[in-house]
């Protein structure tokens, strides 16, 4: 079902939405299909939801596609996800200028194949010449690892005279993969689990969380509308007191 949000009834559109893509495996199992069929369906859902986000005025969409823990899955499943990412990035390189979608990959890409690393570098380069909506895909990403990496880089910059001695939250944010990207306003987890699973630990300090049992491949525009409607009912005080 198509989403119903238009600019008159939108309420507040979150500037940045983060989503944990969960439930692909169960979606496939329910249909007697291999797990990778669920990931394929999940990547198509990502494409639809990214387009919808752009159309309703979301500025940033960040998705958790592959965690540092996901290497524990079977070789077949990991290989299938990597092939999907390869296909997705190639299509993005072809279409992102026309669709005006910037892309960024968050995570330790050094463990990915040289081909994937090359495709990521290419999407980064193209993104530099595009303005507007940005999709961030987290691959080989872990929130704690991101914070440790940021601390190491800051320490190096400090030792080599490139950083000031007084570290602030703002300055430290610049060492995250998400440097320059505002924190997520809304974090969505489909698939029925209600946990963060090491996703955007630093960035989600004040995000509103929305959980749904819908499995990611079944997540559609109407579901996103529901998440945004729930977000608009929240009272965001950022630790302050309501005026
Ligand atoms: C979690 O569902 C999903 C993943 C670990 C992989 C997500 C990857 C993709 C959708 C493919 C590529 C992505 C993009 C953005 C192009 P699960 O397998 O843990 O589901 P389950 O909990 O039902 O087993």
Low-confidence stretches: none
Overall geometry comes to globular
Instruction: Please work out how many helical segments DSSP would assign.
Output: 7
Mean pLDDT: 95
* Intertermini distance: 39 Å
Count of strand segments? 6
Strand order, sheet with most strands: 3-4-2-1-5-6
Radius of gyration, in angstroms, nearest whole number? 18 Å
Largest sheet composition: 6 strands, parallel
Structural class: alpha/beta
SSE succession: EHHEHEHEHHEEH
Tell me the fraction of residues in β-strands, as a range. 5-15%
The hetero molecules present are: farnesyl diphosphate
Helix content: 40-55%
What does this structure look like?
The chain is α/β, with parallel strands linked by helices. Helices cover 42% and strands 14% of the residues. The chain has 7 helices and 6 strands; from the N terminus they run E-H-H-E-H-E-H-E-H-H-E-E-H. It has helices at 24-30, 35-56, 75-99, 114-127, 143-159, 169-173, 221-233; strands at 16-20, 60-67, 102-106, 134-141, 186-189, 208-211. A 6-stranded parallel sheet has the order 3-4-2-1-5-6, sandwiched between helices. Strand 3, helix 4 (114-127) and strand 4 (134-141) form a beta-alpha-beta unit. Helix 2 (35-56) packs parallel to helix 3 (75-99) and helix 3 packs parallel to helix 4. The longest helix is centred in the middle third of the chain and has 25 residues, at 75-99. The protein is globular. The structure holds farnesyl diphosphate. Farnesyl diphosphate binds at residues 21-26, 39, 42-43, 46, 63, 65-66, 70, 81, 84-85, 88, 137, 191.
């Amino acid at each position: 079902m198509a989403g119903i949000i238009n600019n008159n009834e939108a309420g507040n559109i979150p500037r940045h939405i983060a989503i944990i893509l969960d439930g692909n495996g169960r979606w496939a199992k329910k249909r007697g299909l291999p797990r990778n069929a669920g990931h394929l369906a999940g990547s198509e859902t990502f494409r639809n939801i990214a387009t919808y986000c752009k159309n309703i005025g979301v500025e940033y969409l960040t998705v958790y596609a592959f965690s540092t823990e996901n290497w524990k899955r079977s070789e077949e499943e990991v290989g299938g996800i990597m092939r999907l990412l390869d296909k997705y990035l190639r299509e993005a390189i072809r279409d992102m200028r026309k669709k005006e979608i910037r892309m960024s990959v968050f995570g330790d890409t050094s463990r990915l194949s040289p081909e994937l690393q090359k495709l990521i570098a290419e999407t980064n380069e193209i993104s530099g010449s595009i303005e507007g909506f940005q999709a961030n895909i987290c691959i080989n990403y872990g929130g704690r690892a991101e914070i440790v990496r940021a601390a190491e880089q800051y320490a190096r910059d400090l030792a080599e005279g490139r950083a000031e001695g007084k570290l602030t939250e703002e300055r430290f944010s610049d060492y995250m993969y998400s440097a320059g990207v505002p924190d997520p306003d809304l974090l969505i987890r489909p698939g029925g689990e209600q946990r963060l699973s090491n996703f955007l630990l630093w960035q989600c300090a004040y995000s509103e969380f929305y959980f749904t049992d819908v499995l990611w491949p079944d997540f559609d525009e109407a579901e996103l509308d529901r998440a945004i409607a729930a977000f608009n009912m929240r009272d965001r005080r950022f630790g302050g007191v309501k005026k």
